[in-house]
Structures are given as C-alpha cells and as structure tokens.
Amino acid sequence: xxxxxxxxxxxxxxxxxxxxxxxxxxxxxxxxxxxxxxxxxxxxxxxxxxxxxxxxxxxxxxxxxxxxxxxxxxxxxxxxxxxxxxxxxxxxxxxxxxxxxxxxxxxxxxxxxxxxxxxxxxxxxxxxxxxxxxxxxxxxxxxxxxxxxxxxxxxxxxxxxxxxxxxxxxxxxxxxxxxxxxxxxxxxxxxxxxxxxxxxxxxxxxxxxxxxxxxxxxxxxxxxxxxxxxxxxxxxxxxxxxxxxxxxxxxxxxxxxxxxxxxxxxxxxxxxxxxxxxxxxxxxxxxxxxxxxxxxxxxxxxxxxxxxxxxxxxxxxxxxxxxxxxxxxxxxxxxxxxxxxxxx
Length: 344
Prior knowledge:
α8 runs antiparallel to α9, α9 (about 265-275) runs antiparallel to α10 (about 280-295) and α10 runs antiparallel to α11 (about 295-310). The chain has 13 helices and 11 strands. The chain has 2 domains: about 1-230, Glutamine Phosphoribosylpyrophosphate, subunit 1, domain 1 (4-Layer Sandwich), CATH 3.60.20.10; about 250-340, Tetratricopeptide repeat domain (Serine Threonine Protein Phosphatase 5, Tetratricopeptide repeat, Alpha Horseshoe), CATH 1.25.40. The relative contact order is 0.10. The protein starts with 11 loop residues before the first helix and ends in a 6-residue tail after the last helix. The strands form 2 sheets. A 6-stranded antiparallel β-sheet has the order 8-9-2-3-10-11. Strands 1, 4, 5, 6 and 7 form a 5-stranded antiparallel β-sheet that branches. The chain is about 45% helix and about 20% strand.
C-alpha cells in the first residue's frame, strides 16, 4: 500500500481510522495499487502472544530462510505484535501496528489489510493486540502443510511444514509451559521442531518481547530482541542469546540501582548476571568497577584478578577509566588494582 509512505505524523491517526471505513468504496483501487506478485517466500512457523499478567507482547519465529528476524516479527509496547510470513508482505507488520496504535483491535486490523491485498491467498499473518485479542489468516494457496491455531492471548501458525502436527504441538507447548513470555514462546518453537518443523530444515530464528508499560522510548521497551540469521541449529543459538540477554538485563538493572544509590540492589543484579554467564569478563569487570566506586575495594580485587587472567587488555582499560570519571582519580588505587596478580 503506497499510501503509508506519504503519511504525515499529524494525519496518521485520522487516515488510519478512516482506512477501514473506506475499504468498501476503495477496495478495487487498493487491490490495483498493491502488487499482484508474491513477495519474498519466507515459509516458517511462528507465535504471537500477550502475557496478561505483565502486559508483555511478543513474537518468536523459526524458518529455513536467511535472516527471518528481519522480515517476520513486529512488536510495539502497548500496541501489539505481528508475524507476517509465507509469501511475506512486510507491510502487514508496519500497517498492522499503525492500525492497532490508532485504536483498532487485532481482528479489525487484519481484516482490513486482507481486504486490500490481492495476494492474500499466499499470505500467512497473525496479530495480537495489547488487550490480548488475536487474529490469524492462512491463505488458501499457502504451501502445505499449513495452518494456524488461535488460543487465549496467542496464535501459532506455520506453512511448508513436514506435517500438520506442528501448530497443534506449538499451542499445547505454549499453554502448558511455565516461565515468562520468552520461555513459553521458546517452548512453542521447540515443540514445532520436535514434531517435524519446516520440511526443508532450519536456518534462522528470532524472538522479540516488548514491555507491558510503554515508556515512549521504543529502545527501552524491548525486553528481548535477538535473532539468529544463519545457523545449523538456530533454536539452540536463540536460546543461548535469550539467556545472554537476560544476563545483560540484570547488568542494566544493576547500573540503574547504583545510579539511584541502592548499592545492595545493584550488587544483587550484578551477581545474578554473573551467575547466568560466569565466564563473561565484561560482566565480572563492571561488577568490580561498581564495587570500587562503592568503596568496597577489597571485594573488587578477586573479580579484577579473574578478568585480568582472561584478557590482559582489561588491565590497560582500567588505567583509562579515571580520566572519564568511571573510577576514582587515585594513582595508588589504580596501581593496586592493575598490579593484582592471577591466582596460582
């Protein structure tokens, strides 16, 4: 739909709200405007979901297609989540979020976009909005096995699968699994693969989770945003990245706590990060730096020792931090830290 390129910020909401009402009169014109030819053939399986307890929204996906995460998943805090796949039209993601942001439910948004799409028979799309309302479409000409299942606060969908067990297995896994939204969506992806998955195999995967309380800063609203563009085991790699993201989330929370003068909370967050990724020099190092700035130098020295044993460049970095205010400008203190010796 080329109209989306011409929208001004002030007129976006009014135009989107008027879009569905005008479909009956303008449908023929919209269908001529929209390309008749299928777009990129991203055949895959995915899940869109809402967590009513936290308000989080998410999308997770796996495919035998390069960089599936750059095309299929879309999500915005306080608005909704979209998966657009099969012979994919990425505008379903952009326009779906625009319509839901303007107040349309996921079912209304998807209905309108499908009505204006001459290629809807080769599309597969699912949406969930911030109230947990879901909608899904599997085109009549999607390559079998293809189908979807909508449940409370989620939809699972798949096409070009080895068999028709994939989406029922995803639904069951999501409903029965424990943990946060990311954990449950990962369980759905694993279940799909376990019963056959994509008939061609696997190559890439992605997972996005956005917070339940939008801040107006989209970069702060992304709880998870990880993707595997090319791997022989994309789901295994995706799980590794989700775990790493969790650890960095703890690091970030620790930094915020320290900024607010809550040293104990900061140390708890740093310790949680290290426990998740015990061999990460990055996490150990900044934990040690935080301890020094809390005047707990003795506790920091064993951590610095571990980091310097992993890579001597961290020792050099330490000498540079006082000039930018990240460590005290105290030559004796810096010498004490940098001269700490590896354990024997």
